[in-house]
């Protein structure tokens, strides 16, 4: 065991030891306390960016950045450990880190291919699909920094979305009022809405189906 730890703190493995330790701590905190749980959410951006096999950064798209980066660092660390044991002192040892990084990328590229299926967003829940729909306000007020509403998806299920409104129209929106979704703000993860009074909200084909009450943050 002492020899193992000694190897992790020696060149070339030490190049990846600290990043690998950070990765381990990140996932331990994520499992224990839910820290960073939103980073593995594949809504919209992750799924859309990963629609192509070569999309994303260096072909590792289609999964959250934390997943692909963790795979890359872990595999590169193992490759550097093996290279450090197999190659003695000399010029060859200096080539281990870039070679380990390349092997880590190759392994990650192969690993994310089947993982992309796990992070595909459910059809009908992409944010842009809700633009132009009528929603029902679920909070007591809607401001430029606060508000939620319920909107019906194509399959008849409903989703709780974050909404915002500004100007005099915002004062008209309260719980139970209808609003028209006219834009999506990707940076803030919310929709811009305006009051809508052109008749009742049309229910979906099966509003009591299994798709009810899904949350979309």
Short description:
With 217 residues, the protein is of the alpha/beta class. The protein contains six helices and six strands.
How is the topology of this model organized?
Blueprint: H1 2-8, H2 14-33, H3 45-49, H4 65-86, H5 91-94, H6 96-115, E1 134-137, E2 148-152, E3 158-164, E4 178-185, E5 190-195, E6 214-215
Parallel strand pairs: 3-5, 3-6
Antiparallel strand pairs: 1-2, 1-4, 2-3, 4-5
Helix pairs in contact: 2-4, 4-6
Keywords: Membrane, Transmembrane, Transmembrane helix
Transmembrane segments: 12-36, 57-82, 94-112
Protein name: DUF1449 domain-containing protein
Characterise this structure.
By secondary structure, this protein is of the alpha/beta class. It has two domains: 2-119, no CATH class; 127-215, OB fold (Dihydrolipoamide Acetyltransferase, E2P), CATH 2.40.50. The protein has helices spanning 2-8, 14-33, 45-49, 65-86, 91-94, 96-115, and strands at 134-137, 148-152, 158-164, 178-185, 190-195, 214-215. It has a five-stranded mixed β-barrel with strand order 1-2-3-5-4. A hairpin with a 4-residue loop joins β4 (178-185) and β5 (190-195). It is elongated and about 75 Å long. The two termini are 45 Å apart. Residues 36-55 and 198-215 have low confidence and may be disordered.
């Amino acid at each position: 065991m002492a020899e193992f730890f000694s190897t992790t703190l020696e060149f070339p493995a030490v190049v990846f030891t600290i990043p690998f330790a950070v990765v381990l701590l990140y996932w331990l905190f994520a499992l224990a306390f839910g820290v960073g749980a939103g980073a593995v959410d594949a809504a919209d951006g992750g799924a859309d960016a990963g629609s192509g096999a070569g999309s994303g950064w260096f072909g590792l798209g289609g999964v959250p950045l934390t997943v692909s980066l963790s795979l890359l660092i872990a595999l590169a660390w193992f490759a550097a450990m093996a290279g450090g044991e197999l190659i003695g002192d000399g010029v060859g040892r200096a080539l281990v880190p870039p070679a380990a990084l390349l092997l880590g990328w190759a392994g990650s590229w192969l690993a994310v291919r089947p993982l992309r299926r796990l992070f595909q967003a459910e059809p009908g829940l992409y944010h842009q699909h809700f633009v132009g729909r009528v929603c029902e306000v679920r909070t007591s007020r809607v401001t430029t920094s606060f508000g939620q509403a319920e909107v019906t998806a194509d399959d008849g299920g409903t989703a709780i979305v974050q909404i915002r409104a500004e100007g005099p129209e915002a004062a008209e929106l309260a719980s139970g009022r209808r609003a028209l979704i006219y834009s999506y703000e990707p940076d803030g993860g919310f929709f811009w809405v305006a009051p809508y009074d052109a008749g009742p909200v049309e229910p979906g084909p099966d509003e009591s189906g299994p798709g009810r009450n899904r949350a979309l943050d």
